[in-house]
Amino acid sequence: MARYVVDVMPKPEILDPQGKAVLGALPRLGFDGVLDVRQGKRFEVEIEGDATDASLAEVRQMAETLLSNPVIEDFEVRLVDHTVAEAAR
């Protein structure tokens, strides 16, 4: 099994009202000095078999076509170390 993580974030030029709401709430909760907050999405995708260039390309295609909106979001795909993934469970 190969596990990939897809992180999706709004492009820098896109307004992020959820991030701004969090940024406004942090000082009220005693967290000072935070300059900016951007809110995104994280997907964990498990694929049968070993991690290969083909499976990485397939997950990237998933990110481009379903997991993100490429017009307003950027994404990053990375392979998660299996020992780290198992320890987190």
Structure description:
The protein has 89 residues and is an alpha+beta fold. The protein has three helices and three strands. The protein has helices at 17-28, 53-67, 82-88, and strands at residues 2-10, 41-47, 73-79. Strands 2-1-3 form a three-stranded antiparallel beta sheet, covered by helices on one side. The longest helix has 15 residues, at 53-67. The radius of gyration is 16 Å and the shape is elongated.
Question: What's this entry about, in short?
Answer:
The chain has 89 residues and is of the alpha+beta class.
Describe the protein's topology:
Layout: E1 2-10, H1 17-28, E2 41-47, H2 53-67, E3 73-79, H3 82-88
Antiparallel strand pairs: 1-2, 1-3
Keywords:
single chain; 89 residues; alpha+beta; 3 strands; 26% strand
Largest sheet descriptor? 3 strands, antiparallel
Distance between the termini: 15 Å
Strand order of the largest sheet: 2-1-3
Task: Provide a count of the helices.
Answer: 3
Low-confidence stretches: none
Alpha-beta content class: alpha+beta
Q: What portion of residues belong to β-strands?
A: 25-35%
Q: Which outline best applies?
A: elongated
